[in-house]
Specification:
About 45% of the residues lie in helices and about 5% in strands. It is mostly helical. It has two domains: about 140 residues, no CATH class; about 90 residues, no CATH class. It has a three-stranded mixed β-sheet with strand order 1-3-2. Helix 1 packs across helix 2, helix 1 crosses helix 4 and helix 2 crosses helix 4. The C terminus is likely disordered. Bound molecules: zinc ion. The site of zinc ion (ZN) has 4 residues, from helix 4 and helix 5.
Length: about 260
């Protein structure tokens, strides 16, 4: 079968989902309208990052059309947009990139409500024996995961290790099993541009704050679960400036 399903093309599916997003989540739709979008089978699912100086969302057409229902498609778009809203794509990071990705997913998947969490998504309950608190920062989850990974590494584990481990020796065996399994199956192509974009720190908090404030004004609907205080943004850059510029152009409130 081709990558159309019920005659729906990938372009139709994305524009339908963008309309749904606009109706149910205008705040996120506002972000979505200012992004580059690329349809690509080179990535397994969907991802957001910086591609040739532009904030870009890439979507695998087979994943989007065949593996997701209508509600899940909105959830996937919102998931990626949350990574942008939380500035995860601009986090400077030299540590374990898998842990960074897991921590970022733990953050954003708490905000998908009212849309369903896609199957296989990384959520807090998967790490139940780590007793992670909800609604914490990326750094909080990263720290907890790093502590877990350190304990596992003391047992000889590393990403890609083929050895069979008995995690029952640890105090968090279920979490260790999950981390091991995610590591084994992880495709790093998704968030691969993360952490590689060097941005200056200047005025970043206020810039991202302004963007959020503006988005809130444009969209009078209640913004569920959004708390700009929690945005760990510390970056400003030509990327963001361009993004703000485009946002401004698309913002009816700024046209006076
Ligand atoms: Zn993600």
């Amino acid at each position: 079968m081709a990558i159309t399903m019920n005659e729906l093309t990938i372009e139709d599916a994305i524009s339908d989902s963008a309309m749904d997003l606009l109706f149910f989540e205008p705040f996120y739709a506002h972000f979505f309208s200012s992004l580059n979008r690329v349809i690509s089978e080179e990535i397994p699912t969907a991802c957001i990052g910086v591609d040739r100086d532009a904030i870009t969302m890439k979507i695998n057409p087979i994943f989007f059309l065949k593996e997701l229902n209508k509600q899940e498609r909105i959830a996937v778009l919102k998931h990626e947009l949350l990574h942008l809203g939380f500035a995860h794509i601009f986090k400077k990071f030299n540590g374990d990139r898998l842990l960074l990705n897991i921590a970022a997913d733990l953050v954003v998947n708490q905000f998908l409500n009212p849309f369903p969490i896609p199957k296989g998504a990384i959520i807090l309950s998967g790490f139940a024996d780590l007793k992670l608190l909800p609604m914490q920062s990326l750094e909080y989850y990263l720290d907890k995961l790093q502590t877990l990974a350190d304990k596992m590494q003391k047992q000889g584990w590393f990403h890609g290790s083929k050895k069979k481990f008995d995690w029952n020796k640890l105090s968090n065996p279920r979490s260790a099993e999950l981390l091991e399994s995610i590591s084994r199956n992880w495709d790093f192509s998704g968030h691969d541009s993360w952490g590689k974009i060097e941005l200056t720190d200047l005025e970043s908090n206020s810039k991202i704050g302004e963007m959020l404030e503006r988005a809130k004004k444009v969209n009078r609907r209640k913004i569920l679960g959004w708390n700009s205080q929690r945005i760990p943004a510390n970056h400003q850059s030509p990327f963001w400036q361009r993004f703000f510029h485009r946002l401004e152009k698309s913002d009816p409130a700024s046209r006076g």
